[in-house]
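hey so i finally got around to running the thing on that chain from the lab meeting. sorry it took forever, my laptop kept dying and i had to restart like 3 times. anyway pasting the input first so we r on the same page abt which one it is
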Amino acid sequence: MALFISGSHTLPLVAALLLSGVLPACARGDNATGVGGAGGSGVTVGQTTAAGSTASAGGAAATSSGSGGGGGAASSSASTSTAASSSASSASAASSSASSTSAASSSAASSSAASTTAASTSVASSSASSGTGGGVCNLGHVVISEVRSRGVGGGADEFVELWNPTAASIALDSSWMIEGRSATAGAYNARWKGAAGLSIPAHGHFLIASSGYVQAPTADDKLLTGITDATSLRLVQAAVTVDAICYAFSPATLMAFDATYSCEGVPVSNLPHNDGSGAASNVDASLERLPGGAAGSCADTDDSTADFAPRSPADPQSTMSAPTP
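ok and heres what got predicted. didnt touch it at all, straight out
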């Protein structure tokens, strides 16, 4: 039904039509919050909520115009938008905070890892320069580096080797001496004495042997008397013991080394040498200060069992041998 309304009777006629039910409810604006407020008028396109806020469910946007109720709808929509913006800002702030925390944690972890690596590197460098193996050696004095109390040639096939770990040649004058005392002897006596003109080169060796020693290299000097298979040897300079080693081959000879002996720690085993003259005892084996060979003999913990190890065949070195290390 089409209606054409004009003139001064417009409002009374509309009221009459509303009361008679001729105009539909949507035109009456019963549920339209866009019409509201005293003396206000307006038209709402779309569906509105009973509370007067514009509904956006289903993707339909409600457009409001006018004043009163329409203004309330616009205000509500703006408030909703502001709340949404505030929520979004809070989420953004939380995300930013989480990112900052994550970045800080990552930075802290990286810093910790770098510190740990640096500490590990520092420890490794310190260990490498400790001077107990090859490379840098911090010993500042001559040491007994190898001893063989007998060899394939019998009891007289013996030697004592010295090593100079320093960077300068050292004169082995008359102030130097090697003293020995067997497990059954009551006192130390000289087994070798230094003399004018003798010296041990920097990082070099000095070989002292008995008459039964006939292998290469040739000895630098001779022992005054022999050494037994269970003996305490000490290197002395000007009546001061510079280095020492004690070695035994049985429980009885081990127990003989009491406090009157100049032993460093526990005597080391000298087996298979056992003061016997048979083939089992007369073998080419020695006691060498660690690490030994071309790596030098820098181990010096003041414990013979820790500093020396058996070596077979023996490895005698003299002033003619290459410096080590």
